[in-house]
Amino acid sequence: MSGMALHALSARLRRRRLAGSIVAACAAVLLGSTSAGAAGPDLPRSPGREGAGPAGALSWSLTTTGTTSRLRGLAAVSRSVAWASGYDGTVIRTVDGGRTWASVGPAGTADLQFRDVEAFDAQHAVAMAAGEGESSRIYTTTDGGHSWVEAFRNTEPAAFYDCMAFTSASVGYAVSDPVDGRFRIITTTDGGLSWDVLDPSGMPAALPGEFGFAASGTCLTADVSGRLHLGSGGADPGRVFESEDGGATWDVTLTPVAGSGSSGIFSVSFRGPRDGVLVGGDFFNPTGSVGTAAWTSDGGLTWNAPTGASPGGYRSGSAWVNRGWGGQGWVIAVGPTGSDVSRDGGRSWTAFDTGSFDAVQCTRDGACWASGEQGRVALLTGLR
Prior knowledge:
- By secondary structure, the protein is mainly β.
- It has helices at residues 3-31, 323-326; strands at 48-49, 59-62, 73-76, 82-85, 91-94, 102-103, 114-119, 125-129, 137-141, 149-153, 161-166, 172-179, 182-188, 196-197, 220-222, 228-231, 239-243, 251-254, 263-271, 275-282, 293-296, 317-320, 331-335, 338-342, 350-353, 359-362, 368-371, 377-381.
- A hairpin with a 3-residue loop joins strand 19 and strand 20 (275-282).
- The N and C termini lie far apart (47 Å).
- Mean pLDDT is 88; it is low at 1-11 and 17-54.
């Protein structure tokens, strides 16, 4: 390694120690003693529990959503409150643990695909539509979906927005595929009511063909300290871009996740400042399991391939289970051919379901929700 590279790595390590201290302090304040942590046909099943596989008692309990639209966006607030979004301008919300769902999407958006939704309670949510040109938009509600404000409409022909992430109910980010050779980031400081483009000068150049995936709203992740991680595909291997200053400057790291025009990193998930997982694969080869996952224990300085079994195919979503419910190091991954669990922070994976889901999120009070094609939304059972 050159002297310049060693100096850069040393600087990142020093910043990482500071960021870890900040995250730990913020987590202690926010959470007390608890730490946060293309599709093939799979016909919807009747509401109820899906059969558990080799992982034991884990299984998905399907809910009746009242829609058949594909739901790639998911915002799990608690065991009672969740939002899901997707094709045909669909946004739905439950406040009773999935027993009933209400259609609450913005009017006049049936031609949009809401591929990400971020929510903070039963009233405040931000929905992002992905697409070329003006099809990329962001809508915000503060009254449970009774009314929405169109907060952002893309006017850059080359932009295609993929996903969002928030550090708080006020501060958030959304990422677009590269514009003029660099990923474009927009940010809000008022809960999604207005958005501004960040200066791209601190973003490393994208590789030829490199882009993000708008598959589950989790190609970008953010923590309470303002640290961001962005996973990419389209180039081999998939890369992770990291910012420790709210998107002003970025570093980029190679990963073991294979990349191509249809493959790469689809989901980035962190539990605290050090432990993270990546999942992805090739959506044209949904059962392929080579080069589909990676893990880190040093905050993303290095990424490692699983030492045991990999997820059972292309996976588009991932989420850490709250430590108090699933045990330390538990991660759930979902995709069109099934779901997997890792009990060791992504080092090995075990399949437990064959149903199709696109997104997964877990909450502080121990619930894990999943959403996907044909309006499927489910709650995970068997964590205890």
